Amino acid sequence: MPSESIIWQIGLYKKVNKDEAECLECNKIIKCQQSSTTNLISHLKCKHKNSDFQTKFEALTKQKEGEKGSIENHIITGSGIKF
């Protein structure tokens, strides 16, 4: 099972139904068909780009990328494989 997208972790959106979410800041309904978060991220970047939500999203994204890099480094180093 894939992990929850960071966009849901920032507290800006509430799932309305299977294919829609509501922005809790401006009450806009945003399509998120088939669990896609592209429209949610675009809405954040266009409508709330200078908000605390954007800052939190960027911080969590950097943190996740750092964790991924650490795991990849550990696997590569631990196995003796070097690129």
From TrEMBL:
One of its GO terms (molecular function) is DNA binding. Keywords: Metal-binding, Zinc, Zinc-finger. Signal peptide: none annotated. Residues 2-55 form the BED-type domain. InterPro entries: Znf_BED (IPR003656), Znf_C2H2_sf (IPR036236). Pfam families: zf-BED. PROSITE patterns: ZF_BED (PS50808). The keyword Zinc-finger applies. This is BED-type domain-containing protein.
